[in-house]
Amino acid sequence: MSRRFFQGKRPRSRRKFLWSVVAVIAIVSASSLGIYVLIHRAQDSNKILSYRALADLWNSGNIEGALRESRNATQVLPFDDYYLSIEGIASYYMGLNAQDEENRQQFFEESVISLRKALAVGVPAKMRAQIYYVLAKAYYQKGEPWFDMAERYFLLAKDQGSKEQDIPQYLAIVYAGRKDYPQAAEWFELALKNDSSDTLLLSAAITYTNVGQKEKAQALLTRLESSASDAKIRLKAKLLLAQDSLDAGDIDAALQRFQEVLKDDPLNVDAWYGLGLVYSKQNDQLGARAAFRKVVQIDPYHAEARQRLAEKL
User: Fold this and answer.
1) Looking at domain 231-313, what is its CATH homologous superfamily?
2) What is the pTM for the complete model shown?
3) C-beta of residue 156 within 8 angstroms of C-beta of residue 148
């Protein structure tokens, strides 16, 4: 019996010994690996710019250099809120300057990812408003499918005390893009106090039209028709005023404006179609059909003009 007892105990002792050896080796290996990583991390850290040096690079206007150095820094320090913030902001401005749409969108995507990481890590309270603001603009530049995120971060920027004067303008356009015209109209009211650019005035006029504020819309369109510096905006304002005149039954004013648009833009489909409607109301069947045929020549897929031609005028 005693023999069996000792024979049973010996293998366990060997197993304990072996496990102890394995544990020691694992600890030593892990420690060695940790020391190796720390050494190389320290070596890599010597290759990245300090906060001050990176700030100086950014303030010098070298956006590309700031992006390159901040990317390099986040490879070494992936959870550093400062380097992530600079990477996100620089990516946004690189996107604005990019000529190719695919590159633009890649920069905006990088901006979104970096800034959201910075917020997740925890940026100082004094930086949050600016981070929210740039993040909102990056989402805005990504297009209408992202307007809900743009809205969210513009409102957060405003709540955090951002003094950027174009926030109402962005929010107005975001709400208009989402067809929330009552909200858009409210923000346009605020935006127009700080900005009277032609693009903003045109967007505001379209929004006022959609919420039934015809007088405000016509006042802005009339102003753009006569004084907009951009020829395309002048034509768009004239076209919208022509349509308003047609809807109101002022056929002569509509005819004059449609003809003025076509004088400057002979291939304007909307103006030709509007002209066809004017001739129809004047019982000028030949003129109407000629105008609708011109529409189809320019745009063979114009459903309304094709339908008009299929009807007996």
Assistant:
1) Tetratricopeptide repeat domain (1.25.40.10)
2) 0.71
3) no
